[in-house]
Design a protein that fits this description.
The complex is a heterodimer of chains A (about 220) and B (about 625).
Chain A lengths: L8 E4 L12 H4 L6 E4 L8 E2 L1 H20 L2 H18 L9 H23 L25 H10 L3 H11 L5 H8 L3 H23 L7
Antiparallel strand pairs in A: 1-2, 1-3
Helix pairs in contact in A: 2-3, 2-4, 3-4, 4-7, 5-8, 6-8, 7-8
Chain B lengths: L2 H12 L5 H13 L1 H19 L8 H7 L2 H13 L8 E2 L6 H15 L24 H4 L2 H27 L31 E8 L2 E6 L13 E2 L7 E6 L10 E6 L4 E6 L6 E5 L6 H5 L1 H7 L3 E2 L5 E7 L5 E7 L6 E3 L6 E7 L5 E7 L5 E7 L5 E4 L10 E7 L6 E7 L4 E8 L8 E2 L9 E5 L4 E5 L3 E6 L7 E7 L4 E6 L6 E5 L2 E6 L3 E6 L9 E2 L5 E6 L2 E8 L2 E10 L5 E4 L5 E6 L2 E6 L5 E5 L9 E5 L1
Parallel strand pairs in B: 1-36
Antiparallel strand pairs in B: 2-3, 2-37, 3-4, 5-6, 6-7, 7-8, 9-10, 10-11, 11-12, 13-14, 14-15, 15-16, 17-18, 18-19, 19-20, 21-22, 22-23, 23-24, 25-26, 26-27, 27-28, 29-30, 30-31, 31-32, 33-34, 34-35, 35-36
Helix pairs in contact in B: 1-2, 1-3, 2-3
The chains are: A mainly alpha (about 220), B alpha+beta (about 625).
Amino acid sequence: MNLSAVPAVVGRPLVGEEAGQGPPASQAIKGHTRMAKVAGAQSSEQAWSFERIYDEYKTPIYNYVYHLVGNREQADDLTQDTFLKAFKALPKMDANLKLSAWLYRIATNTAYDALRRRKLIAWMPWQDLDHEPADVESADPQETIGTSELVHAALRRMPRHYRAALLLYTQDGFSYAEIAATLNIAESGVKMYLSRARHSFREHYRTLEQGGGNAK
Amino acid sequence: MNCEWAEGYLSAYLDDALDPQARQDVGSHVEQCAECNALLEDYRRLDHVLATATRVAPPDELHARIFDSPAFAAIVRDQQRQSQRPARARIINVAAHTPRLRREGRALHRSAQRHGEPTMTPVTPIGASSSPPTIQTPQHTRRTAVVWAGVLAPVAAVVLLALGATLLFRQGLLPFQGTSSGRGTTTTIGGYNPTGAPLAAGPRLVFAHDGALWSAPQHGPAADGLPGAAQRLTPTSAHVISWQAAPAANGAHATLIAYIDGNTGALHLVRSDSQDDHAIGSVTATAGAAFWASAAGHATLAGLTWSPDGTQLAYLHAAANGAISLHVMHADGSHDTVVDTGTHGQPSAAVWSADGHWLAFTQTTSAGQQHVNAYTVGAAPVTLAAQADPFNPQARVMQMAWLSGSAATLTWATGDGRSLTGVFVAAAQGATGQSTRLTPVPDRFAAADFSSARNAWLVAGPNTLITITQLTTQAPQLTPVATLDAPARLISWSPTGQSAAVLSGATLEIWSPASGLASVTRGVAASPAPIWSANGASLAYVAGSTVVNAILQQGHVTTLETLARAPIAYVLRWSPDGQVLGIAIPSGVLLTPADGSHIVLVDTHAADNSALAWSIAG
């Protein structure tokens, strides 16, 4: 691929960081409050391309999407859709865009839409696929036996909105405001989501921990 | 203070998200209460467990799938083009109703008009470079004045979503950035009207946000007949957490919307045109955070199903012990009947027959066995299949439909989460519990769809399209009808059964029995799914960042109209008459006519779950 053809995105340091001496490209997008500004195709030391965005976010976004849909094959597709949607829209976004929260929001909506479509296509208005055995992979070579497996299994049993809030808070380090932005809910609602999420996760995790459920 | 009270605040206490007084109260309680202290410690421990859990990494090949894809190449081309793209558009922001917002709308319009002639879209009609006779871009098919209008459409969204983004974001109108301050502006005309004064009759687009239901008229109050702004339907006392609009099929009036109030667990009906809200029942007596978070709560939220004629409603009720029962009732709340589902497990997946006489549903036992059943009022349910796929106990019903024009015969497809495992048929009358398998046992399918208009399945094997017809005979016919270049991702029959959309890889193909398979556009998204108009004459889909309307005659695509440019679209819904398309985008809800002449922003809040539905009020 000809990288020079790829529009670049320039990382801008936050107020308090020295302007003109922006962080290295790989760091420019790590923080959730880092800002991104779209520029035309250009080459500068600060510029980072779609490739770099992908490298930086591929694992957190994939991990998040995987936990939302519970299926690796679908996580592949949805992560692909997420990045392509983001790449399409990014150059048109406001200069103050919070890249991380925005990416997660696209991922969230892409995953929710897929889950909803899965139900619509199936004409199954009553089937809660989030809780169906079909939603759970029976053999996942990358899953380790033990705590991580219990975590994955407990997460799969949770209502997806709460699951999303809990993942964003505990695994991705989002603030309440960022969760609100990502899940399109009021900031006051995040408190309730996290409360219910912790309650639900604890219930399922403890059940699994005590051997009361099939972790797979 | 008691434990029940404190437990509700422990999570926020852990996050230091309480006001000082509440924090002190909870802290004092935790110090004295071993149980709450243990719960708090458990929350802390599990937060740590989650934070340190192994992250799931993507496969290496995902990089190539993204960066070597035609879609990515199109993005690069599009963005190079956009750096020189002028813009001119007709912007109609009916959601902006305050004087300040109206000024903003005019400013946007003026801003757009200052630019030069727009260029066309990145949609890639297959073979377009060689000017094929059957697929034309709008400028080839419309008269000059209309061409200009049609060309405006893509640019309108560009202005809304790109040029206008900064202005609107700063006004807090487009809350896409997600700051909580951005959600302060609502888009209601006169707010909720408890007197139930009628709103405009006719087709209305229904959606939910901020715990309330809203509807926007296809034809607003203005003399130009353009869509109007969304108006709120539900009272502030209710918190809508699940809803279903009665189907607006065949142009018949279908005014009612059923919803569940999360505050009380009550089942409500509200008209889409009069804000006449009333409770007709309940899905639980134990509504509350814990219930809605439970599996039973989740099931009841997904349990509303209207009969196709909008006269009956099926719902799921959760008893205090968590047992789920299936109910059917008339649309006025009368004749509430519990279906005797016996001991075969939790009911789900209901599908009404076209005449509303039969209701098919599945039941899954705790051992995982899934039954397929049918119910008619006044009789006990009958078992159509004791196991959805007798050869695959893990398989679940993925699609279910009643055959049209034949006596109570159900057909369904099963899947095991990876692929479809089989297609089946069974009659409800004289049911023996034995279904007829229509596909060979070892065969698996990537996608399938059933057409009630044709009583036929269209299924996709690894690279073959197959029709399944004559379902009720002793010799159902499986006929290979086309070869696909890439695995099918989605199949969707038109409502008339005249043709079907097939997404083969990222290529949209139209298959019809008369003329076979024809490619339409590359780079088409599976999400949002392409959507047919009720008359099968229009198919809306997203290609690149463009919403396109493929117009068909006799199963052939004759014209591709560009309706809007939306970098992200979540869902598409045609109005019942196929004249207007509803589009849910991150920053609101749009309506655009099938000719793409303009775009109307009817709400500046994203629809909850991106769900849109049409209702015909009157």
